[in-house]
Amino acid sequence: MSILSIATSGLSAASLRVNVAASNIANINTTGPLPVSGGSSTSASSGIAPTYPAAYVPLRVNQVSQSSGSAPGGTIATVSAVSPSYTAQSDPSAPFANQDGLVAAPNVDLASEFVELATAKYSFIANAKVIQAYAETEDTLLDIKT
């Protein structure tokens, strides 16, 4: 795998980290009804009850070294759901709160999300510098005069 391929895989992973962290931060207050044991959302006991969307399911990036193939190198980043995806939070004023006044809130740790953003920033900068150094070195080699 070439230097450029390795660095661009790092840029791609950093970009994915930013997107996932931004989505988690933007949806930190997107609550929903607490799921019941069957996996469906709780509803009122009346025959026709309004349905409410589920709470936002936070995501995380799993990044591993690309070690397969004839020329290993670089990184692979995939997205998966955080488990458990929600925590019970008190919000008795919500129309979908259960009898105890609880709703499902996304299991997002704001401090961890800001750490993810900082990590992605510095990873992106480092990989961009690798590409810049490679380009400068290549230009220098092409400018050699005899």
Automatic annotation (TrEMBL):
Compartments, as annotated in UniProt: Bacterial flagellum basal body
GO BP of this protein: bacterial-type flagellum-dependent swarming motility
Domain spans labelled Flagellar basal-body/hook protein C-terminal: 100-143
Source species, domain of life: Bacteria
Keyword Calcium: no
Domain Flagellar basal body rod protein N-terminal: 5-33
Coiled-coil spans in chain: none
Entry GO CC: bacterial-type flagellum basal body
Entry keywords, A to Z: Bacterial flagellum, Cell projection, Cilium, Flagellum
InterPro entries attached to this UniProt entry: Flag_bb_rod_N, Flagellar_basal_body_rod_CS, Flg_bb/hook_C_dom
Pfam families: Flg_bb_rod, Flg_bbr_C
Membership in a protein family: Belongs to the flagella basal body rod proteins family.
Protein name, UniProt field: Flagellar biosynthesis protein FlgC
